[in-house]
Amino acid sequence: MLSNKTRMKKSLVLTVCLGASILVVGGLSELNAQPGNSQDPLVTKSYVDKQIQELKAELGKGTSGSGTTGGNKPSEGTDKPEAENTSLKIVTIKPGQMLIGKAGAEFVVRAGKSTVFSSDASGVSDLTDGKDLTNGMTVVNNHLLLFPRDGRGITASDTPKNQVVVAVRGGYEVKQVPVEEPTEKQTEN
Question: Cα(120)–Cα(110) distance, rounded to whole angstroms?
Answer without folding.
Answer: 26
